[in-house]
Amino acid sequence: MKVLLTGAAGFIGARVDAALRASGHDVVAVDAMLGAAHGPDAAVPPGCRRVDIRDGDALAPLLTGVDVVCHQAAVVGAGVNAADAPAYGSHNDFGTSVLLAQMFAAGVQRLVLASSMVVYGQGAYDCRVHGPVEPLPRRREDLDAGVFEQRCPVCREGLVWRLVGEDAPLQPRSLYAASKVAQEHYATAWSESTGGSVVALRYHNVYGPGMPRDTPYSGVAAIFRSALERGVAPRVFEDGGQMRDFVHVDDVAAANVAGVESDADGIVAANVCSGSPISIMDVASRLCDAHGGPPPVATGEYRSGDVRHIVADPMLAAERLGFRASVGPAEGLLEFAFAPLRG
User: Fold this and answer.
1) Residue 51's closest CA among 111, 112, 6, 104?
2) What are the backbone dihedrals phi and psi of residue 23, each rounded to the nearest 5 degrees, phi first?
3) pLDDT (tens digit per residue) in 195-253
4) How many helices (H) and strands (E) does the chain have?
5) Whole-angstrom Cα distance, residue 233 to residue 5?
6) At what angle do helices 280-291 and 329-336 cross, to 10 degrees?
7) Can you give the pTM of this predicted structure?
């Protein structure tokens, strides 16, 4: 198939590009080459074109003969403050709306959209007494006292995390999250008005070779790596007990190939995850053990708005897309301890 791939020069997009080509697809690769993601002097990679998806005139000729669009382009990160809102709205949401309009004009009926776990907000929790509950935001007085677990809104007892399924309500808690929810809503409306199909891939914590360091795009795993390379103990917020699902970038690329090759109609939203929950402290400890650096330090510090636990259910992706992650955190983090980073 002929695939238009946006964000093709990025950490994830580059691996998606390689995986699509290895699977025999004809890839039209584009990237805006934003300085925040690539650095101010980064060259456009071979086989990729510098195109800003907000420019409909530049997009239009590239969509001729395209069977499916694989949309990775986005400004990421939680955002520093409300002043960042226009950047998210412009690149992520306006850019997606322009892309969808040009797809309609070109008669392209299939979209694979890079979404994110951030659409779920705080994650999913159970109270031992009251069952499934929606926790209130954590209180500053609890956090200051080192009480980090979510509390039941009824009895105030600590909650137990559970897997988040794709039917969970979308509750964005950051500017980036709001923009990803908006992307899904635009894609849903486009699907319903045109009859096109959408596969929205909700990535969990992506890591792996080529991950950017020391930029707004850096994930916690890369931050820990950078500390170890400086001979400094990784600093872990709270007590390190935050549970996440770390998924290897090659598995994310495989999920995109599965989405491109799927025959799903309508709208499918699917978690892209390893299915092996792991704590932030465990991630730091595994990297320290492999790298031979000083052990991580739980600082007790916290960031306002951070989510305590968010762990994904992988079953729908397996059932609807035939995707199952092949790289577990044990082997993936061992590789990542010495893998090359960007920047």
Assistant:
1) 6
2) -90, 5
3) 999 999 999 999 999 998 866 556 899 999 999 999 999 999 999 999 999 999 999 99
4) 12, 16
5) 38
6) 50
7) 0.96
